[in-house]
Amino acid sequence: AQTVTQSQPEMSVQEAETVTLSCTYDTSESDYYLFWYKQPPSRQMILVIRQEAYKQQNATENRFSVNFQKAAKSFSLKISDSQLGDAAMYFCAYSPGAQKLVFGQGTRLTINP
Amino acid sequence: DTGVSQNPRHKITKRGQNVTFRCDPISEHNRLYWYRQTLGQGPEFLTYFQNEAQLEKSRLLSDRFSAERPKGSFSTLEIQRTEQGDSAMYLCASSLQGTGGWYEQYFGPGTRLTVT
């Protein structure tokens, strides 16, 4: 069974600093997708960034970037120049294709002004 | 385009009662997913539809749960004889699935169910 593990229940960072959220996953598939989703308090889940497993290049979206280590089955999210609006629950997720998402337990990120 | 909508947003019910939730996906989206999220956890997949066909159901979806998507538009999720363990946020997501690849799932705000 595919599983996603986020070992950091909570993280905090000073505004304008950089923070890295960790994620590991387990799968026997060779082709799949990995995601980071953001869930602000009382608001809906939104996609932050996506990585296709067949791509060696790490995905980047503005201040958000990933470190994808396929052999280690590791997929971390780096947030640069943290802003107060980045405060949220962050979920790492996996999908073997055009199917369901398998989510990790989440990391609550606090931004300190 | 107003995004994915879910109704009601909150539902409080007594144990043993039946409840029904509705999800309206983004128009023209052919895929519709249901997830359940308990407090402090990540969402767990329940089921999904391609148009009106239900393609996969999780083992989490006991026989008390049923989902439909008549005419491939909105979807309903019904829970019969609710139990306290059913208390959770029920999330709906939709996507426009083409051939191959992955297409972004857009999530609704969820329906929070409390079973007393």
Provide key terms for this protein.
heterodimer, A: about 110 residues, mainly beta, 6-stranded mixed sheet, 4-stranded antiparallel sheet, 12 strands, globular, B: about 120 residues, 7-stranded mixed sheet, about 0% helix
Q: What is the overall pLDDT average of chain A?
A: 94
N/C terminus separation of chain A: 41 Å
User: How many E strands of chain B?
Assistant: 11
Biggest β-sheet strands, sense, barrel of chain A: 6 strands, mixed
Task: Output the radius of gyration of chain A.
Answer: 13 Å
User: Count of DSSP helices of chain B?
Assistant: 0
- Percent of residues in beta strands of chain B: over 45%
* Regions with little confidence, pLDDT below 50 for 5+ residues of chain B: none
Structural class of chain A: mainly beta
How would a crystallographer describe the biggest sheet of chain B? 7 strands, mixed
Percent of residues in helices of chain A: under 10%
Strand content of chain A: over 45%
Count of beta strands of chain A: 12
Task: Specify the overall morphology of chain A.
Answer: globular
Q: Give the class of chain B from helix and strand content and strand pairing.
A: mainly beta
Number of helices of chain A: 0
Helix-strand pattern of chain A? EEEEEEEEEEEE
Ends distance of chain B: 36 Å
Low-confidence regions of chain A: none
Description:
The complex is a heterodimer of chains A (113) and B (116). Chain A is an all-beta fold. Helices cover 0% and strands 51% of the residues of chain A. In chain A, the strands form three sheets. In chain A, strands 2, 5, 6, 10, 11 and 12 form a six-stranded mixed sheet that branches. In chain A, strands 3-9-8-7 form a four-stranded antiparallel sheet, with no helix packed on it. Chain A has a two-stranded antiparallel ribbon with strand order 1-4. In chain A, 30% of the residues are buried. In chain B, the strands form two sheets. In chain B, strands 2, 4, 5, 6, 9, 10 and 11 form a seven-stranded mixed sheet that branches. Chain B has a four-stranded antiparallel sheet with strand order 1-3-8-7, with no helix packed on it. Chain B is 0% helix and 48% strand. Chains A and B meet through strand 6, strand 10 and strand 11 of A and strand 4 and strand 5 of B.
